[in-house]
Amino acid sequence: KLGAVFTWLYENIVQPVFTALKVALAVVVAAFLVWWEGVKLYIGLVGDVLSWLWTTIAQPVWEKMKAGLRALGDFFSWVWNALIKPAWEMLGNGIKAVWENVISPAWELLKAALGVVGDLFSSVWNSVIKPAWEGIGSLITTVWETVINPAWEAMKTALGKVGDFFDTRSSGASARSGTACAASWPSRSTS
After folding, report:
1. Is the pTM of this model over 0.90?
2. Per-residue pLDDT band at 190 (split at 50, 70, 90)
3. H helices within the chain, ranges in order?
4. How far apart are CA 153 and CA 17, in angstroms?
5. What phi and psi values does residue 185 have, to the nearest 5 degrees?
6. What single string gives the DSSP state of each residue in 90-111?
7. Which of the two residues, 135 and 1, has the higher pLDDT score?
8. How far is it, in rounded angstroms, from Cα 58 to Cα 55?
């Protein structure tokens, strides 16, 4: 009887489960294969489209861009090497030559000349003008103190005495002759 139980179990449980698993696995594998064929078709289509885009549009445009950039680079390289760089070097050499051969020697000559002129003026100032000026100042001071100022003071004193003389004369005459004579003389204030 044990063999009959195993046979029944095999025929009624194990075999139907394995059959169901085989069918389910076959369905899953078939579905995967169908899906995979779709993916392969889609990937193939996308690859074909991308390959077509690259071959007919992107690659020719890229090649033309590379050629254009190369030509542009060659042009700017030529402009730099044939025009700008030589002109810049000539300008630099010209400025250097003008500085070394004209400006710097002229500046050094001017500095030397100004040094000589400065030394000459300093020498003339110290040995001629300053002593002459000091001599003239001393002479003026001496003439003022010994001639003009004493003469001026003497003249003031003399004129004061003459004025005093006439004042005393006029006041005496006025007392003798009345007020008419005093009115004819200008009054002198003694303040």
Report:
1. no
2. low
3. 2-9, 15-53, 59-78, 85-98, 104-124, 130-143, 149-177, 179-184
4. 160
5. -90, 135
6. HHHHHHHHHIIIIIHHHHHHHH
7. 135
8. 7
163 Cβ contact list (under 8 Å, min separation 6): 188
- Using the 8-state DSSP alphabet, how is residue 126 labeled? I
Q: Is residue 183 over pLDDT 80?
A: no
Residue 92's identity, in one-letter code, is G
- Radius of gyration of the chain measured on its C-alpha atoms: 66
Alpha carbon 123 to chain centroid, angstroms: 44
Distances, alpha carbon 52 to alpha carbons 41, 43, 60, 80, in Å:
16, 14, 12, 41
> In this prediction, what percent of the chain has a pLDDT beyond 90?
59
Phi, psi (degrees; rounded to nearest 5) at 178: 100, -165
Structural contact between residues 170 and 185, judged by C-beta atoms closer than 8 angstroms: yes
Q: What is the pLDDT of residues 110-145, one digit of tens each?
A: 999 999 998 888 988 888 888 888 899 999 999 999
d(CA 182, CA 171): 7
Q: Are 130 and 142 in contact (CB under 8 A)?
A: no
